[in-house]
Amino acid sequence: MGKIDDKKKQKRDSLLGAAFSLFTSQGINDTSISDIVKKANMAKGTFYLYFKDKFDIRDKLITSKATQLFFHAAQEMKRTGMADSEATSLEDAIIFIADSMINDLNEDKRLLRFISKNLSWGVFHNFLMASDEENGYSFYDGYEIMLEKSGRRFRNPELMLYMIVELINSTCHNVILEQEPVTLAELKPELYNVIRDIIHRQEIAALG
Amino acid sequence: MGKIDDKKKQKRDSLLGAAFSLFTSQGINDTSISDIVKKANMAKGTFYLYFKDKFDIRDKLITSKATQLFFHAAQEMKRTGMADSEATSLEDAIIFIADSMINDLNEDKRLLRFISKNLSWGVFHNFLMASDEENGYSFYDGYEIMLEKSGRRFRNPELMLYMIVELINSTCHNVILEQEPVTLAELKPELYNVIRDIIHRQEIAALG
Amino acid sequence: MGKIDDKKKQKRDSLLGAAFSLFTSQGINDTSISDIVKKANMAKGTFYLYFKDKFDIRDKLITSKATQLFFHAAQEMKRTGMADSEATSLEDAIIFIADSMINDLNEDKRLLRFISKNLSWGVFHNFLMASDEENGYSFYDGYEIMLEKSGRRFRNPELMLYMIVELINSTCHNVILEQEPVTLAELKPELYNVIRDIIHRQEIAALG
Amino acid sequence: MGKIDDKKKQKRDSLLGAAFSLFTSQGINDTSISDIVKKANMAKGTFYLYFKDKFDIRDKLITSKATQLFFHAAQEMKRTGMADSEATSLEDAIIFIADSMINDLNEDKRLLRFISKNLSWGVFHNFLMASDEENGYSFYDGYEIMLEKSGRRFRNPELMLYMIVELINSTCHNVILEQEPVTLAELKPELYNVIRDIIHRQEIAALG
DNA sequence: CATGAATGAGAATTCATTCAT
DNA sequence: AATGAATGAATTCTCATTCAT
After folding, report:
1. Which of residues C162 and B131 earns the better pLDDT score?
2. Which of A101, B13, C107, C124 matches a 20 to 30 Å C-alpha distance to D66?
């Protein structure tokens, strides 16, 4: 019955696409289920066959969009050969990923507005921990592997990640959308310096 | 006719109080004007004599609550004698203020939820720049005076403040409300270290 | 699925009927959407499935009622054989139609009040030009055919019709509703004489 | 106490002026008592000291504005000497007055919209019959004197006036506001011809 | 599975009118 | 006489959700 499942997936994707387009252009509060199904060319009742309500579809969307961002960053890192280079420090890798995501969000301000406004640590954590269906390990697993590969040790890797993510998310939001209080180009070097500091502060000095 | 003005202020405060109580307990989206006036024991029309709409009263509330937090922190600093001591470094002062506010918010999680969710840099900036009616200078003025008194120079004081505020706001939010990924007690030292780093990174080394 | 369409038409008609009854008895301004749906035994939201707002249903009603009046007049003319008689002059035909409509409105003062108060030349013109779905031609087409059949020529047929319609509408309104300044019976002969004059004034004398 | 009366008249006029300005610019339905008193720089309660409600002030306004129009027309007729000339026929006089009023309304479309939309024969009749406080006779008296001076006799002078007034009012309204179906310049000659016809039809032929 | 008509509670907002000052 | 704060009924319109087809 793959055919039916295909059809179902198509409907679901259609609804997700319509919702994303509307959420990002008019905001979640101003988007009604009516709007979504109209845009997706479906009947109102159909929505409820796939999602519980507006917030259900919102959460599904955030996870999916955030995953895309990470994938893209990871791809870029591979493409540049950075991922495999011995010369790449942990700091460089993290900043590279952050930079890739920031650039993507800077290109797509609607996506930024949508993700940023709805990203709590809870949702983000779920996303971090969700293991990929295909290869069975999660983004957090990837993070830990990265740390391990660096051969360095850190006091609280999760807190470290938390502070980095929150700092990036909170400072970039307004800077990208409003160019206030500085431009993104001005923010970036300072931000990346602070990220280095955070990592440095968390490192347990290696034994001589 | 101070009597009438008194009554008006009373009504206004009544509405602000009712709105705050409802906003923090059920959220803004789930609070209607009806709810607010019912709680404030007034007729619906009266609301519109004092506020334009729900968002107007929300913004007024944030500003007023944030002001209270700052005032309390400043008072505490004076009370401890820290404000006047020569030994107090800029870092110490900023961290003291942050700590006082964080503690207050930790005591009043509803206030935290309310402020944090609705605090954009735009609103915060307005608040920072709003000059006090009594003595005619703003919180930002106070910040600049503090910097000056320290005798040190910084590359971009506004960006420095921005990063500190956003870092505090974003990391504390989830930690206080969910104790995730660490407890507040665990976060604080790390957070304050990073604040010191941010300040240090911004300082222009004094000439020998 | 004629069943569903039938039901929809029934609902629509129900709303139109309720609205007409209320508009004519208490006036449009004093009729709320609430009143209409209550009278039609429907939920408030249902109204908005069929009409945009009060003014939408009003315009639909005027057109529909005016069409009925015209149809009735045309039917009468056919019934009397007048339509086909060679002896019927253009003046006689126009006055016959006017007379039929005036009599109908005299019988149904509420309809008169409703139509008259809301009939602008704009709305009337739309109605005149709207081509019937069945046979595809409009009332104005009918008027032009009538002129042609008469074999006579007129300087400005549209202006001629405009003056006749406005004169009838404006003079009959008060006379029917208030019998002031004369009774309808007294007005009619004078009115019809003036209509003859209007037509005569507009005619281009045929070449000898 | 003429001073107090003066003040009262001033307030009343202020309200009338504000109301007229608002009625004509945004329509009666969209003008609230609030708007009126705000424009007149008065307190809300004051309105009710001078007028019963919105409709009261509306009727007072119409009468006053219509009176001004007539006065202006009469003045013009005197100014041109037409009023006293033996050569002026009744038709000429009536058409002169009509023309003057039409021109005034054409210059002030807001006034036209206001008067026309609210002018019923009832209101107009009241106005016609209202005797002037100063010289104690009414516009209708003036009309009768005009007829008498002409030395001609008419079957139903009131009906004659009624038809003329209604024809003018109803045909000019749309033509002035929308230039449809003809321009005012095109309408005028035809309209005045029909007025002549109406008068002619009403005349009782003088005995040889 | 899919539809979409129907629901009706509920939201925001306006405004004529009153009345204590 | 004048004020204007307060009222609260009334109105328009939206929308998540249901359910018969």
Report:
1. C162
2. C124
Give tens-digit pLDDT for C107-146: 999 899 888 877 778 878 888 888 776 777 888 898 999 9
Q: Give the pLDDT confidence score for residue D121 in this predicted structure.
A: 79
Neighbouring CB atoms inside 10 A of D155's CB total 11
C168 vs A138, more confident: C168
Nucleotide minimizing C1' to CA distance for residue B48 = E13
Kindly state the tokens that stand for B95.
């961290």
Give the pLDDT band of residue A43 (cuts 50, 70, 90): very high
Which residues of chain A are within 8 Å of residue B162 when distances are taken between CB atoms? Answer: 171, 181-182
Q: Tell me the shortest Cα–Cα distance from A137 to chain B, in angstroms.
A: 20
Q: State the Cα–Cα distance between residues C163 and C149, nearest whole angstrom.
A: 21
Confidence of residue B194 (pLDDT cuts 50, 70, 90): very high
B201 closest CB neighbour out of A171, A174, A190:
A190
Pick the residue of A162, A165, A175 with the most B CBs within 10 A to test the interface with B by mutation. A162
The whole-angstrom separation of Cα A5 and Cα A20 is 22
CB D167 within 8 A of CB D191: yes
d(CA D157, CA D191): 19
Q: Rounded to whole angstroms, how far apart are CA atoms A53 and B182?
A: 32
Q: Which residue has the tokens 């009338």?
A: D16
d(CA A129, CA B4): 60
Query: What is the CA A111 to chain-centroid distance, rounded?
Result: 10
- Token look-up 């309105």 returns D47
Phi, psi of C176 (to 5 degrees): -70, -45
Footprint of strand E on the protein (CB under 7 A): A 4, 7-8, 11, 42-46, 49; B 1, 3-4, 32-35, 44-45, 47-48, 53-54; C 4, 7-8, 11, 42-46, 49; D 30, 32-34, 44-45, 47-48, 53-54
Q: Taking 90 as the threshold, does the pLDDT of residue C12 lie above it?
A: yes
Q: What is the pLDDT of residue B38?
A: 95
Tokens of C103: 């009599």
Q: Residue closest to E15, CA→C1'?
A: D32
Contacts of B183 (CB under 8 A, 6+ apart): B175
Q: Would you put residue A187 in left (φ > 0), alpha (ψ -120 to 50) or beta? A: alpha
Upstream peptide bond of B181 is cis (omega within 30 degrees of 0): yes
Strand F, nucleotides covered by protein (CB < 7 Å): 1-21
List the A50 CA – E3 C1' distance (angstroms). Answer: 15
Say if residues D14 and D40 touch (Cβ distance below 8 Å): yes
SS3 at position D56: helix
B194 neighbourhood in chain A, CB within 8 Å: 163, 194, 197-198, 201
